[in-house]
Amino acid sequence: MNKEDLYNYLDSRNRDFYSLADKIWENPEPAYGEKIASDLLRETLKNEGFLIKEITDMPTAFIAEYGEGLPIIGLTGEYDSLDGLSQTREPEPMARVETNYGHGCGHNMLGTASAAAAIAAKEMLKSSKLPGTVRFYGCPAEERLSGKVLMAQKGVFDDLDACLTWHPSSLNTVWGCRFLAFNSVRFHFTGRAAHAAASPESGRSALDAVELMNIGANYLREHIPDAARLHYSITDGGGEPNIVPAKASVWYYLRAPERHQVEDVFKRLVKVAQGAAMMTETAVEYELDAACYDVMPNDVLGRLLLKNLKAAGSPDYDSADEEYARKLSHEFTPERKETSLKGLFAPLSLKNQIVHKGILENKDQGKVMAGSTDLGDVSRITPTAQFTTATWPIGTASHSWQASAASGSSLGYKGMMLAAKVLGGSLWDLFHEGTKLLKDAREEFLQKNPETYKSPLQQ
């Protein structure tokens, strides 16, 4: 099977993979609750001859493996959805009545395209009798930025020679940028209840502690790296105003371009919380419920993905797809499209397109995307690269109703199948002639990652 045969094979299976993505889109599920999606992908790959390996204590995570020997190349798939993004396929805001969840990040397509590429690689390995192993990693809870981190703790990525992935987007391009490292931490304060009018002096307000902590955190912002971010919400502020709150909680997200910066800010934030507890004579405990590294892209693998993106070409949208995209984006002003393109480090001239046609050779190396992904931890274990394809109109924000709608459409699925071809073509190269590529990718990886991976949850 040559590369053109691989593309033709994927084209011949379009209907199968559209159907798979559609079933996952129709059944959006929360992080760690993706039973339908993970079962659909498991069964699909099992029926294709893949060996399915379960992951202890992670019921919606799994590994599907085909082949034997080296190299071992991994593909990651995600399939969790987002609360509050329920949306029909209509190009106007219209929530589905049966669910509050929606695929506003296109994860129904992300897992499907990676599975499709793994299946195409299986056909290639079988026909060519080449040595090598392809693995599909079913990864839950990317939106919680923790699924791959927990998997990494179990060592499931340790023996990979390389890992490839993609993400739905509004552009056909390869990401050479980094993403922000991240901590999610909840602070719980405990005080003493009392009648707020009759005996306020007997009370110790946990809510006062939360508010003082937030004031301290806002002053802390002045003394952290420019690109670092602190976001918070009060998740428990007490009950009736006439009772001094004995319990109160606040949830913080910390982000920064580098992992050590997040850890430094985190230590200072803990001191702020302890200070607030001291001032209010309350007690404080915290739980670090998610954390991940910044992504370290591998340029050697990035160039391989770009080569195959150019070879596969941009999606073949028809007039119906373009009309759908036009309706979906009718409220996108030029300013909104410019903001979106700036966030993706893309040329502003693309604002004149409805759907991205062509391949963008982006110049984003050394830049930092204002977001986070648990793929960062995989990139600290093995050489890793990722790309995007145009599954949404230009100007579409991820985590939006427009993204939810497009992710269940022909427009999205055509971008999805382009992603499958790029991944499949890149696997073809790595299995046929990847010795030097993998050696160069490993050398770059070791230069960028001189230290052994340590889970960010072990703080």
Task: Provide the descriptors you would attach to this structure in a database record.
459 residues; alpha/beta; Aminopeptidase; Alpha-Beta Plaits; 4-stranded antiparallel beta sheet; 14 helices
Radius of gyration: 23 Å
What distance lies between the first and last C-alpha atoms, to the nearest angstrom?
48 Å
Tell how many strands the DSSP assignment holds.
15
CATH topology of the largest domain: Aminopeptidase
Structural class: alpha/beta
- Work out the helix count: 14
* Global mean pLDDT: 97
Highest-level CATH class of the largest domain: Alpha Beta
Count of folded domains: 2
What is the name of the CATH architecture of the largest domain? 3-Layer(aba) Sandwich
Task: Tell me what portion of residues adopts beta-strand conformation.
Answer: 15-25%
Portion in helices: 40-55%
Tertiary shape: globular
**How would you spell out the order of helices and strands?**
HHHEEEEEHEHEEEEHEEHEHHHEHEHHH
Low-confidence runs of at least 5 consecutive residues? none
CATH superfamily of the largest domain: Zn peptidases
Chain-wise SSE layout:
Layout: H1 3-12, H2 14-26, H3 35-47, E1 51-54, E2 62-68, E3 72-78, E4 82-83, E5 101-102, H4 107-128, E6 132-139, H5 147-153, E7 162-169, E8 173-175, E9 178-179, E10 181-190, H6 206-220, E11 229-236, E12 247-256, H7 259-280, E13 283-292, H8 299-312, H9 319-328, H10 334-343, E14 368-369, H11 375-379, E15 384-390, H12 401-406, H13 410-433, H14 435-448
Parallel strand pairs: 3-6, 3-7, 7-15, 9-14
Antiparallel strand pairs: 1-2, 2-6, 4-5, 8-15, 10-12, 10-13, 11-12
